[in-house]
Amino acid sequence: MTVPVGGETPAVGTGAPAVGNGTPVDGERRISGRGTRGHARIAEAFARARAEDRAALIIYLTAAYPDVATSHACFEAAVEAGADVLEVGIPFSDPMMDGPVIQAANQHVLESGVGVTGQLELVAGLGHLDVPKLAMTYVTIADTRGYDAFAAELAASDVSGVILPDLPVSEAEPWLGAAARHELATVFLASSVSTDARLAAIGRTSSGWVYAAGLLGVTGVNALVGEVTRELVERVRTHTDLPVAVGIGVKDRDSAAEVARFADGVIVGSAVVRAAGMGEPATAPERVGALVRELRAGVADRR
Asked: CA-to-CA distance for 123 and 186, rounded, in angstroms?
C-alpha cells in the first residue's frame, strides 16, 4: 500500500496567508503548532545537530514491544546511543504506512493487551530522557479517544508532538486546534507525487519538521531512491523554513550517511524495531544501542 501523505487530498491550508518560504504569519502560527512548547523542543534538537554539522537522528520504536519493560529499556538505549528525537509508535490494527516488521510489532502489542493508556504510561516513564518524543499513530485512535482528550493525554505523558500519516492537511484544523491547546507540534508527510500546491500547504501547516517519505510504499523497504528523495527535499524546502527529515528506506550507517548529506534529519524505524524483536528480550537494548550508534555515525558523515 502506498504512503498516505498529509496533503494528498485537495489542500486548502488554514485560510491564512504565508510569508516567504511557507512561514505562517502570526494568526496562523498558533494553529500550525509553531508557537507551542512541543515545536520549541523539537527545534532545539535540530539546532543542536546543526551546530555539530550533522543531521538529526530520529529513532522510531513501537511502544511496549516486545514487552513494556524491554521497550522502556530500548528507548533508553536509543537515547544513550545518540538518538536526538524519539518517535513512539502507538499500535493500530490497520497501520497503512507500516511495513511487515512494524505491523508484526503492532500486532504483538495489541495481542498482549497493552492498550493506549498503558503505552502512554510507558512514555510518561521516559520523562528523564532529555529528547523530544513524538507519538506516531493514526487518526482513528485520535478520533476514537476524542481529539482534545487524546492531545491532553499525550501532553501529560511528556509528548512533544504527533505524526498522523493519514491526516490530510485539508481536514486537519480540528486536530490542529486540539494539539495547539495542549502545546503539541504536528508533523505532516510529503512525497514525490505531492503537487507544489500540496507541498505549500504541508510546509505552511506542519510544525516540528516536515517528514519527507523517501520512497512511495510502506516502511521497511530495502533501498532509497536517492535522486528522487533529494529532489523531494529540495522541493519541500522551497515551501517551508522547517527542517526536512527523511524516513522510509534508511536502515544502516551507509543509508543514513547518504540521506544526511542533503536532509536535516534521518528517520529510522523498521531496522530498529527489528533489532528490538529479533532475539531474546534481555539483550534487546544492547542490539538497539549498537544499531543506533552505527546510525549516529552515519548522520555525522556528510562527506
From this structure: 18
